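The instructor's notes for this session suggest beginning with a concrete chain rather than abstract definitions. Hand out the sequence below and ask the class to guess, before any prediction is shown, which regions might be ordered.
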Amino acid sequence: MPTAQNEESLLRDNRDGIATLTLNRPRQRNALSGALIAAIHDALRDLEADDSVRVVVIAASGTAFSAGHDLAEVRAIEGVDGYRTLFRQCSDMMLAVLRHPKPVIARVQGTATAAGCQLVASCDLAVAAADARFATPGVNIGLFCSTPMVALSRNVGRKQAMEMLLTGDMIDAATARDFGLVNRVVEAARLEDETLALARQIAEKSPLTLKIGKEAFYRQLELGVSDAYDYASEVMTRNMLARDAGEGISAFLEKRPPRWEGR
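After discussion, reveal the predicted structure:
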C-alpha cells in the first residue's frame, strides 16, 4: 500500500524497484506550495540512499499534473527575501530531480503549466496522456515564466520555447512530443501501465551504469564538443573498470541474463 511521505501533499509508493511520488493536492490542481516542494525534495533525498529503488516516477492525483506555483501562497509573500527564498527552494528541488542518481520519469495527465511544466521538463523522461496539455502562461498575468524557462529551453528548440513563453498558449500532448518535451503519448487509460512498463525496462539495467550515464549526460551538455569527448572518454574508461561492466560483457558473450551488483 502507498505510504504517506507528507499526508497533505505527497504520497510515496515503492514497488519492484520503482518509487512513485504522487503530488496529492487535487483540489488545488497540485499547485506547488512550499510544503509540497519541500516534500518532493525530502523524498528525493531519501530515495538517493535507498538501494532497493532503481527508478523514480513523479505522478499526480486528480485531473491535473500541476498548475505550477500556488498563486494564493505566492501573493501572500511579503518582501523580496520571501520571493527569493521561494524561487530558490523550487529551483533547488528541480535541480534535485536533474541531479538525482536514478532516472526520474514524469507521468503526466491533465495540464502541466508554469512550474508544473518545469517539473516535467526537469525529469529525465516523460510519458503523457493523449489529452494532456502544457503551457508556460505566466506572461498572461504579467509574470514571465523565467524559472520554468531554464528547464524548458534545455528540452525543446529555442523557437518552440520562446513561442510557449511569449504567448502562454497551451500545447497538446502530440505537440509536446514533437517539441521534445515528452517522450511518449499514450491513451489516458493506459498511462499508468505504459509508464510502469518503461520504468521496469530501465530498472532492469545496472544501477551503477544508470547513475554513471545520467550524471555524464547532463555534465557533457555543458561542455564544448572537444571537452565533452575528453570527459566522456574518461567516464567510459572508469565505467569499463566496474564489476557490472565486466558482468554485462560476460553475460552477453555467454548468452545469459546479467547479474548486477551495482558496483
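Then share the key points. Strands lie at 3-6, 10-15, 18-23, 55-60, 104-108, 111-113, 125-129, 133-135, 171-172, 184-186. Residues 3-203 form a domain with the 2-enoyl-CoA Hydratase; Chain A, domain 1 fold (CATH 3.90.226.10).
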